[in-house]
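Contributing new records

If you add data, match the layout below exactly. Sequence lines come first and carry their own label; structure lines follow with theirs. Keep one chain per record. Anything else will be rejected by the validation script.
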Amino acid sequence: MKEIYHFLQQLEANNNKDWFDKNRDEFKKAQQKISHLTELLINEVRSFDKEIGFLQPKDCMYRIYRDLRFSADKTPYKTNMGAYIAKNGKCGGYPGYYFHIQPNGSFVSGGLYMPNPAFLKAIRNEIYYHSDEFIDIIEEPEFKSRFSFFDEDKLKTNPKGFPADFEHIELLRFKSIAPSVNVSEEQLFSNDIIDFIIENFRKFYPLNAFLYEAVSKIE
């Protein structure tokens, strides 16, 4: 992980095409390490979550190039690397497992970040009709103490189509259901980082299964 991290640190300080072209071999080495890690994690996830199907690392990994079309920030490259392991890969829109390596910003996440409107409505319906099951998952003591949600990804008002007096209406305000845990440099560079990622992926599984049950009803 140190080699990947070091490359990203250097890229962050030299985010321009000239530097990148001169260091393309280092990028390829980092990319290959991410590919090997992703392949390992795909195989581990498939052992407990059959919904992901058969994936290749390239199905899950993200390009290093930023989309500059609508951005005021014109730096050409992302300063993070990672992969999203889910049914149909990173572009499928399904619940999954994500690892993110970035200087001073590494984390592991699960669930579903910013689902499309149809999936979001299906998830809210599932929470509404099966709120006890959902609460049991997210309030499980170890899950609750370990993971945090993006509180900013919430509606300020109640979503349409649900009674305002629903006991757990606040759970329907989420625009994402994507718990995460930060990864420190010390953890990232430790010998058990892969075990740490797998352990957390396993803990995301009950939530992902709940979310998949929701979205599968409209497939």
